[in-house]
UniProtKB/TrEMBL annotation:
One Pfam family named in its UniProt record: HNOB
Classification via InterPro entries: H-NOX_domain_sf, Heme_NO-bd, NO_sig/Golgi_transp_ligand-bd
Domain Heme NO-binding: 2-160
Superkingdom per UniProt: Bacteria
GO MF annotations in UniProt: heme binding
Protein name: Guanylate cyclase
Organism expressing this protein natively: Planctobacterium marinum
Length: 180
């Protein structure tokens, strides 16, 4: 996992919780490098899992809620760092439908060692989009937050639900996004 994900996670912990909570979870997670990450480095994704689990224990907040909160924060940072991707999209569904075929493709050019998930989509109507997610890292709760952050960015109200599904014979997580 790219270091940028770690540095953004730590920023979120400082912002939403405190410096003390950050110190506490770094200690608790017992990380190989004591929590020193550079944005361009690449680290074992289990380390971010350990940090999120430690934060869940310290804050008594459920893991899925924390990952979704982090996803929303991360989306806000993507808006600042990569405004062109958002400006080019005509609405939230247009943006979300282009993650796999365009946005993550561009990300891979910037960070050739990025480990990105696969997304497939089916648009049922202008108010209902299904996205199928496949990743060995199982960050579906992070994806929920990224999708919710996307809806908020495009000033669109709606709900995101998650279920287990199959895409072309392979296990996948399905997100159903319904706009109000
Ligand atoms: C401009 C927008 C976006 C940018 C620049 C971006 C970039 C990235 C980067 C740099 C990573 C880390 C890769 C690694 O650590 O090796 C990542 C991972 C990920 N991205 Fe995106 N992303 C964007 C939008 C989204 C959106 C809207 C979603 C949700 C639908 C999404 C879903 C994910 C997930 C779930 C991961 C974690 C890795 C995994 O699940 O396997 N991304 N993305």
């Amino acid at each position: 996992m790219k270091g940028v994900v770690f540095t953004e996670f730590m920023d979120m912990v400082e912002e939403v919780f405190s410096d003390d909570v950050l110190d506490e979870i770094i200690e608790k997670a017992d990380l190989p490098n004591d929590g020193a990450y550079t944005t361009v480095g690449t680290y074992d994704h289990q380390e971010i899992v350990r940090l999120v689990v430690a934060l869940s224990e310290t804050s008594n907040m459920p893991l899925p809620d924390l990952l979704a909160t982090f996803g929303k924060h991360l989306l806000g940072q993507f808006v600042k760092g990569y405004p062109q991707f958002f400006d080019e999209a005509k609405d939230a569904f247009d943006f979300l439908s282009n993650i796999d075929s365009y946005i993550h493709v561009e990300v891979l050019k910037l960070y050739p060692d990025a480990e990105l998930p696969k997304f497939y989509h089916e648009q049922h109507s202008d108010k209902h989009l299904s996205m199928y997610y496949q990743s060995s890292r199982h960050f579906e709760d992070l994806a929920v937050g990224l999708i919710e952050g996307t809806l908020a960015h495009f000033n669109t109200e709606g709900t995101v639900s998650k279920s287990e599904a199959q895409w072309q014979g392979e296990d996948a997580i399905k997100f159903d996004i319904h706009l109000n």
